[in-house]
Fold this sequence. Notes:
The chain is an alpha/beta fold and 280 residues long. It has helices spanning 61-66, 70-76, 121-136, 150-161, 182-192, 196-199, 204-210, 228-232, 234-244, 260-278, and strands at residues 6-13, 16-25, 30-38, 49-53, 79-83, 143-148, 169-172, 217-222, 248-253. It has 10 helices and 9 strands. Helix 7 packs parallel to helix 9 (234-244). The two termini are 30 Å apart.
Amino acid sequence: MPTTLELLEEHRLFGGWQQRWRHHSSVLGCNMTFGIFLPGPQGDAPPPVVWCLAGLTCTDENFSVKSGAQRVAAELGLVLVMPDTSPRGDEVPNDAAYDLGQGAGFYLNATQEPWRQNFHMYDYINEELPALIAASFKVSDRQAVMGHSMGGHGALMLALRNPQKFASASAFAPIVNPCSVPWGQKAFNAYLGEDREQWRQYDSCWLMQQAQQQLPLLIDQGDSDQFLADQLQPEQLEAIAQQKGWPLTLRIQPGYDHSYFFISSFVEDHLRFHAQHLLA
Length: 280
């Protein structure tokens, strides 16, 4: 292992290992932690990676502790990488509100003060952390990405901007149209400024309309989600997908809310969806 990685925790789990690591991020200008699940070996081929992006207020630990994803990942031979949701630390800018600052990085590169020094989560997730994972662990270059809520926004946006990197993408209750909903408008105005042209590059609806290359997408959304009507609106993305003949499956799940109880109910479907494309 490179000396830049410090092992914080390690737990045996379903024949594999759940680990938590700390490293210094030059992109974010602070120390960062991430979780990784390494399945037991299944032959000589290095396993593919599924990125698991968490939502507002979450850290790198929410998905690893609450989703129950590792059992299926172990069976399928998938590595799970669970990054943090923002830069962290006493020197990193923050806000009193839950939907801005630390815990609310929105997977973008901020251009406005005081955020622009540290809040470069797009470059961190798209470039720096994948390079670190590739250099430090025996993994394949086959990748997929999934996420929840703000992380669902991140997963879809990253995949739409980088279709050559990902075999597939999926999301639970994603923010699909951040330019048009309160969470996205607040964050984008703070991080990117008032020029809405700059916002579009992080909006999945706009990105899908412009896209030249398609990749398969799966979205699950609970119909009892308290954020469905005003913040999430997955039907906006579904309408564009239908216009473009995009391979998007949107499943509305009756009675489910926005919580990790919802995620853990359907995470197996998502991992099998990704395995189908990663292992093809």
